[in-house]
Amino acid sequence: MPAANADTPSPAQYPQAQSVEDFRTRLAAVHATMAAAAQRAGRDESEIRLLPVSKTVSEERIRHAVQAGCHQLGENKVQEAKRKAENLADLDIAWSVIGHLQTNKAKDVAAFASEFQALDSHRVAEALDRRLQSAGRSLDVFVQVNTSAEEQKYGLAPEDVAGFLRKLPAFESLRVRGLMTLAVFSADTQRVRECFVLLRELRDQIRETDPDLIGPGDLSMGMSGDYEIAIEEGSTCVRVGQAIFGARSRPDSYYWPTDRPPEQR
Ligand SMILES: *Cc1c(COP(=O)(O)O)cnc(C)c1O
Description:
Elements: H1 20-40, E1 49-52, H2 59-67, E2 72-75, H3 78-87, E3 94-97, H4 106-112, E4 115-119, H5 122-135, E5 139-144, H6 161-167, E6 174-180, H7 189-209, E7 218-220, H8 227-232, E8 237-240, H9 242-245
Parallel strand pairs: 1-8, 2-3, 3-4, 4-5, 5-6, 6-7
Helix pairs in contact: 1-2, 4-5
């Protein structure tokens, strides 16, 4: 089993999937791991959505993944997601943007995405809603929470989440689905677990005080290195890239800000 959030997985740990057959095998393995984690926690695997994350993956390989059954894909960067959505428009794919968004990219997200998982500012909510209204579309959103108290991480501080959610009903085209987080990048699984527990407890607390504000109260948490722990702690959506597609050559620091080199995390 991979260490939680191993930063530079060896190619052997996450081999590249190329063919449709490779993807079928990999998806089956991830689903089996999800089911085992769910069972350990007394949960039903059907409560948990697998969102394959295809960042850096070529369109040719994505076509094979779609043939193997991936019809929802997560992408961290809007530019890359937009290009893929255009070039793969002939396929049945719902695109989920899971990375930080700048207001000047809201128009693009409103045009092609069906879900945005990294909402953490009023300005972005406002920009998205304006673009969605004029496009006559709506968008599922998750509010991103910084559960690791790392300064460089995106997301709202846990204590600011309820106040933020209270502002969202004004944006009628945004459909709040729940909360999203990235755990601390650490091989210390206890610290990783604490991030997931914090998100679940925050969701439970908001359900008590403001049940109308959090939609179904979904929890998007867990990635290749830590999705089993996330499922044990209540995740309803795991965002899994490398365990399906294979190791990425581009360092993760390209996708989110970090202040330390990977080996020190
Ligand atoms: C890349 C990414 C993931 C998936 O990470 P893997 O290690 O490839 O599973 C999950 N969430 C976000 C926000 C990402 O950018």
